[in-house]
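HOLO CASE FILE
Compound: flavin mononucleotide
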Amino acid sequence: MNEPLYKLVYISRNEIKGDDATILHEIEQILASSRRKNPIANISGALMFNAGCFAQVLEGPHDDIQNSFERIQCDPRHSHVVVLSFEPTSRREFSNWSMAYLGADSTASAKFGGIMHESGFDAELLKADRIFDLLKEHLLEAE
Ligand SMILES: Cc1cc2nc3c(=O)[nH]c(=O)nc-3n(C[C@H](O)[C@H](O)[C@H](O)COP(=O)(O)O)c2cc1C
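Model generated. Tokens follow.
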């Protein structure tokens, strides 16, 4: 029953072309799919977008994350998908969200944009914890 929990943190590059409204519309489609599918797959998490990049946290049982992530990473709406961490965790931090979203106009995303620029968009220099903590802090604040 109580399967061990895992969390996966990745970043990727946006491949949705067009103006802000087009990008927003596509992200709304992604969120609609996520909010429909993730509860069935036992997955909760958060997605952030800024500076042409996505960061996402997926939490749930190991195999459920793996199955969903295999599908997500093949999505042509993003590329250069880099897993920053995939490790056991003691509890869900985003249990209230099938997929929370922080867009480019949020404080968290502005900080994410800053972190991405600071790293020179080099995934090697990005720390999963920093992205995870940023999402956690801002979503708990918003709650
Ligand atoms: C950055 C990004 C994050 C995504 N996150 C999820 C997710 O958490 N859950 C999910 O089911 N699909 C997610 N998707 C969408 C999937 O890749 C796929 O398009 C979708 O699951 C197909 O669902 P559909 O049945 O609505 O066509 C994401 C796509 C992108 C580009």
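CASE NOTES: The chain has a mean pLDDT of 93. The pocket of flavin mononucleotide is lined by residues 12, 30, 33-34, 37-38, 45, 47, 54, 56, 68, 71-72, 75, 77-78, 99 (CB under 6 Å).
CLOSED: yes
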